[in-house]
Automatic annotation (TrEMBL):
Encoding gene (name): lptB_1
Domain ABC transporter: 2-235
Keywords: ATP-binding, Hydrolase, Nucleotide-binding, Transport
Chain segments annotated as transmembrane: none
The keyword Transport is assigned to this record: yes
Name this protein carries in UniProt: Lipopolysaccharide export system ATP-binding protein LptB
Assigned EC number: 3.6.3.-
Gene Ontology terms for molecular function: ATP binding; ATP hydrolysis activity
Organism ancestry: Bacteria, Pseudomonadati, Pseudomonadota, Alphaproteobacteria, Hyphomicrobiales
InterPro entries with a match to the protein in the record: AAA+_ATPase (IPR003593), ABC_AA/LPS_Transport (IPR051120), ABC_transporter-like_ATP-bd (IPR003439), BCA_ABC_TP_C (IPR032823), P-loop_NTPase (IPR027417)
């Protein structure tokens, strides 16, 4: 569903992303992990069109994305959340979701009945009339996910969705995303530093270090990969995972 081929991004003399290639299939949950500054968010920004790659090619469902801006990519089926929340604070919870639904409908994407289920699943049903800025931090994270799902995406990208959540909230989020995988069937790309969350949720994981892919495989493959242990996990975290 999503294909990156030899993607690089240069900022002046700094190469933030270096020859990154990977694929995410429909229905697959792919983790993207690595140390701070490894280039993870830059990769998501390149996929979503907020940044333009210096070289390489991107494909969505077989269609070349090169040259298309972020709005065009959203309309074609790429949805995302942000590490720093970007909610319409002056709108209600329901209106935040409706913005995405209207966008999807204007592009001829059928309004999925699964959105009503997602609102229930992510504990927003009783909060639709509330101002978005009155939600707790954990529910704001959930609102961003439901709003992204309301676009009926082919690819859903989540940047640090569990950041700032306690253990119970993270477990509930993981269960909700397992449901998303079954109900929506979109390709999902997840960045997070919570290794338990990532290892439990993801089918496969791509590891970045200094802008380059150093490993790719199942969670078990990743936790036993010495390059990943040296660059990111450390022996203790590897054993725990």
């Amino acid at each position: 569903m999503l294909v990156l081929e030899d993607i690089s991004k240069q900022f002046g003399g700094v190469r933030a992303v270096s020859h990154v290639s990977f694929e995410v299939a429909a229905g697959e949950v792919r983790g993207l992990i690595g140390p701070n500054g490894a280039g993870k968010t830059t990769v998501i920004n390149l996929i979503s069109g907020l940044l333009t790659q210096t070289s390489g090619t991107l494909f969505l469902d077989g269609e070349l994305l090169n040259g298309q801006g972020s709005a065009d990519r959203t309309r074609k089926g790429i949805a995302r959340t942000f590490q720093n929340l970007r909610i319409f604070e002056n709108l209600s919870v329901g209106q935040n979701i409706e913005v995405a639904q209207i966008t999807a409908q204007s592009e001829g994407h059928a309004d999925s009945p699964a959105i009503s289920e997602a609102i229930e699943r992510f504990d927003l049903a009783g909060k639709l009339a509330m101002p978005a800025n009155a939600l707790s931090y954990g529910h704001l994270r959930r609102l961003e996910i439901v709003r992204a799902l309301a676009l009926n995406p082919k690819v859903l990208m989540l940047d640090e969705p569990a950041a700032g959540m306690n253990e119970q909230e993270t477990a509930e989020l993981a269960a909700g995303l397992e449901w998303v995988k079954t109900r929506f069937g979109c390709a999902t790309l997840v960045i997070d530093h919570d290794l338990k969350f990532i290892m439990t949720l993801c089918d496969r994981i791509t590891v970045l270090n200094m802008g380059a892919v150093i490993a790719e495989g199942t969670p078990r493959d990743i936790t036993t990969n010495q390059d990943v242990i040296d660059a990111y996990l450390g022996e203790d975290h590897s054993n725990a995972a």
